[in-house]
Design a protein that fits this description.
Layout (H helix, E strand, L loop, with lengths): L3 H10 L3 H23 L2 H17 L10 H19 L9 H5 L10 H10 L3 H12 L4 H8 L3 H26 L1
Length: 178
Amino acid sequence: MDSPEQAIYRAAIQGDREAFETVIRSVSRNLFAIAYGVLQNREEAEDVVQDTFVKAWKSRWRVRDSAKLPAWLATIARHRARDLARKKRPEPLPENFESQEVVESAGHTADLDGEVRSALAQLPELHRVVLTLRYFEDLDYGTIEQTLGLTNGALRGILGRALGLMRKRLKPALASIG
């Protein structure tokens, strides 16, 4: 027996515009989080989401299993974001980048938000995407697994490695404010 969600997915794949709009409303936030995790830029991530839906509408017939539609859309968004990231030329960091991030004052307070963004930007793409979905978008494991097409074990492994890398990179900043 089909779930109502799968029936909507199947209708969208078959060309039902109303069903496709329902899919758009249900997954656009997740796709934005994926694109933002790759690009670290709001406007570019929004463009990627729009491009993803245009491409998906044109090639929706390729989805054989309607239950996998969200994972297929996530894959398109990740690829589009990667393509855009490759096209952008990396801007060199200023020589005093490290000292700019930490603000030395009487209380030795750090710009922790900047440190977190910097540490997140240094992570591998999939690690950034998973952390963004889990901790910034507050998605549960099942939704992330379905969105990215990961197994529970793979997701937990990626999250564990990503959090370990974040802890390691943030340790000096946290020590300076502690």
